[in-house]
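Human:
Care to share another protein and its fold?

Assistant:
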Amino acid sequence: MIETARDTENNSTAFTTRKPVLKVVGVGGGGSNAINRMIELGIEGIDFIAANTDGQALKNSLAPVKIQLGPNLTRGLGAGGKPQVGESAAEESAKEIHAALYGADMVFIAAGMGGGTGTGAASIISRISQAIGAVTVAIVSLPFSFEAGRRQINAKEGLAKLRQFTDTLITVPNDRLLQIAPHDLPLEMAFRLADDVLRQGIQGISELVLQPGVINVDFAHVRQMIQSGGGALLAIGQGEGDEKAHQAVERALHHPLLDSVPLDQATGIIVNFTGGNDLTFLEVAEAMESLQQRTNKRANIIPGIINAPQMHDRVQVILIITGIGSTPVSGTVLQTLQGIATPAVNNRPVETGLVQPPFIPLSESETNKLMNQEQPERMEVMEYTGVSNNLDVPAFIRRRMR
């Protein structure tokens, strides 16, 4: 957004710019893990908020702003795996949620569906976000198939409520992650993978808006696309070599986590390339031409290019595809496991056997530096003692935590 101020004395116009305000709310355990990952990676330009009924988990969050949901209702002991409790807890804390979200141009809500807090509270937080006029994007993970029974039912009912209060709903079925993961992937890593996909989706969209580029995709473009109606899809891919831009687009459209992408139904596509100094105009033009040949001629296609010198011989593309389907934001959107961006810290990924390892842990020195940084003033969090009965965490994980 550009704001102008008239200088009458010098008969000139001074231009000032205001970056859009982006806020991310991690709801429950899965959502909080996702924003912790973003904070560890040094992602800037976003306000992070953790919201949870579990006081102990909230205390351990890295988010500078923390909201304890329903302190009178739950006493900081969690929602007990009951979405109704999570919903009521969010209603109790509606004023705190409103105060934390106020002033945002776009709000991301990250949560895991199936438990109590994320499933129940996400729709309330999303409703408040829309009430303040923010573009509201929810990115949620769905339970693994082995989490049968009540968690699956909770997730289905929670999605139906959440869909009513979002401009775009992005869902990530955890089972699809296992289809492309190595067979010897540890169980704990599988859950971490699911949390990290939420992080990737948020980071991918936010960088479209916040990073200046050779060709900019501004907030107005993103807002118009997200609010245009119909289903929405986010796809991310990377390429390398002589045809890296074209390769990145193909990988984004054909990644195993994605169903077939109905480009012929799309009414709008934002295509944002991030590459090094060796990314040529011809490469981008050829990739765009390949994409245009598969789309509706009336589709509004907006390109963007961000220069990142550290990405030598590599390029990343982010596609936001809208207008898919006849109902507003039908919400079957998947995120790829391709890396989203080069983090602010220079560290090496843990090898997981995936095409592009999504986890980039901090070194010991970087971790110490992060933990010693002065944190902004935080909302007061009620502490408690004793064993939590929060059933948002699967039983076999809770047993390991004792």
Remarks:
- Confidence is low (pLDDT under 50) at residues 1-8, 326-402.
